[in-house]
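Chains adopt folds. We examine one example:
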Amino acid sequence: MKLHKGNIYYPKNRKEQPVKWLCICAHQDDCEIMAVDGILKGYYSKKYSFALVETTDGGGSARTGKFKDYTDEEMKAVRILEQQKASEIGKYHSLYLLNYSSKEVKDRSNKDIVNDYVQIIKELKPQVIYTHSILDKHPTHIGVVLKVIEAVRSLPKEEQPKLFYGCEVWRGLDWINDEKKIGFDVSRNERLQKRILDVFESQIAGGKAYTKASIGRRYQNATYYRSHSVDSYKMVSYAIDLKPLLKNPNLSVKEYALSFVEDLRKEVESVLD
């Protein structure tokens, strides 16, 4: 496989079983925030493994503390090492570091990224893909998910994933109507979840308590999942189903995204009538 300008890292303790769960995300630590369902399943499975595609190069991130005087190039190196360490702890099958800038990701005309995604998906043949939600508020995350959708849509039906999820990072999905919301039980091994998040010291030192926020969100999701029943799970992460965009290639991403907003509007309206 020849990526446009990226490279592949194989963790020392990697799981060599076929990849069933694949995360395609924008930044270092996005995966560990949003695709913990796949990470846990890959970690414990005896038949399959989990892999990660990391799209951006880690430049331009906030920095303070011991990282405050780091140059962009130094920060890129730090963030790559952090992501590699997370892949070791989580026993990922492989880590694809594509090394694009955020500007390139947000460029709707950039096909190099789409082609890299296509190559990787064809190579790994995952049954499940996790990527960013089309309701996310981070423009680089939106740049990634639009390119992932384009890549997957270009594949023959038999090569497309069986399950295709848009996951929460920079906008929670607790507000999605219950019948459209996908809740993953991620109650298992909170210690592992914390370890793979704590690895990203450069981001936490930059003033973002991502470990506490991500673990807290999972507890919050579980508690507020159902209003008229006791908690079934200790921790839950949310996603929306992106498969309708594959079943109907002509369905506009914008139209599909706004349908969730319209569902909420109708529910609020019915309660207040």
